Task: inverse folding
C-alpha cells in the first residue's frame, strides 16, 4: 500500500466512560497506544487528542435544548471533526451505546465524519453485550458515512483478568490480539490518506460579508 508518510496525523479519541478511572478509558488508551505504534511502524508520526465526554455531559444537554454549543463543547467537536481518524469507545448499557455517547454524535453535523477512519470499541460487564458493536455502533457510523475498520474491539470484565489488567502487558491475550489487529487496520487507512485539511476559516465567519467586501478583518 502506498502511504502519505512524513506528515503528522491527529487521532481523536472519544471516551464515554462515566467513572474515573473507567474500563472504557482504559480500552481507549490501549487502542490509542497500539494505533500510534502501528502508524510509527508505517513511518507516520501521530499526535493524540482525547475527548472525555463525561466532562461535557451538561454541555451536551444544553446543546440539545438550545442548538448552541458552548466553547468547551465546540472545542471538543472541532477536535473530532478535524482529526485524521477517530477512536470511539463507549460503555454498553441495555445492549446499546450509552446516551452520553449517542448525544455527542447527535450534535455533530451529519457530514462531519464523511470518509473519516473510525475504530470502534466498547466495554461492559458481560460478553453478552458484545454484539452491540455490530447492531448499534456500526450502523451509527455507517449513517455518518465514516469509514469504519473491520475489527471492532469489545472488552468485558473478564477480559481484564490476568495479563490484561491495567499495568500488565497482556501480550498474546485475546483482547491484546484484537487491539493489535484493529489498530493495524486503522493505521493502514490513516497512512493511505492525505492529512486532514485545515478547517475553513470562512465556514463560520465572525466577520460579516459586508465587512469582508469593505476589506474589514477580524
Result:
Amino acid at each position: 500500500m502506498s502511504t502519505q508518510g512524513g506528515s503528522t496525523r491527529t487521532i481523536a479519541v472519544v471516551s464515554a466512560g462515566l467513572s474515573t478511572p473507567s474500563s472504557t478509558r482504559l480500552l481507549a488508551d490501549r487502542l490509542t497506544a497500539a494505533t500510534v505504534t502501528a502508524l510509527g511502524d508505517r513511518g507516520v508520526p501521530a499526535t493524540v487528542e482525547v475527548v472525555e465526554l463525561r466532562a461535557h455531559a451538561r454541555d451536551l444537554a444544553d446543546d440539545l435544548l438550545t442548538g448552541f454549543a458552548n466553547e468547551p463543547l465546540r472545542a471538543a467537536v472541532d477536535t473530532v471533526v478535524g482529526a485524521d481518524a477517530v477512536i470511539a469507545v463507549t460503555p454498553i448499557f441495555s445492549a446499546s451505546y450509552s446516551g452520553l455517547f449517542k448525544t455527542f454524535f447527535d450534535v455533530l453535523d451529519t457530514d462531519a465524519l464523511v470518509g473519516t477512519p473510525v475504530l470502534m470499541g466498547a466495554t461492559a460487564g458481560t460478553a453478552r453485550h458484545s454484539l452491540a458493536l455490530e447492531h448499534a455502533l456500526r450502523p451509527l457510523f455507517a449513517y455518518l458515512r465514516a469509514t469504519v475498520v473491520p475489527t471492532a474491539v469489545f472488552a468485558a470484565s473478564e477480559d481484564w483478568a490476568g495479563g490484561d489488567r491495567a499495568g500488565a502487558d497482556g501480550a498474546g491475550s485475546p483482547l491484546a490480539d484484537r487491539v493489535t489487529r484493529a489498530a493495524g487496520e486503522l493505521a493502514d487507512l490513516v497512512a493511505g490518506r492525505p492529512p486532514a485539511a485545515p478547517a475553513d476559516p470562512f465556514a463560520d465567519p465572525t466577520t460579516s460579508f459586508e465587512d469582508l467586501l469593505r476589506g474589514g478583518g477580524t
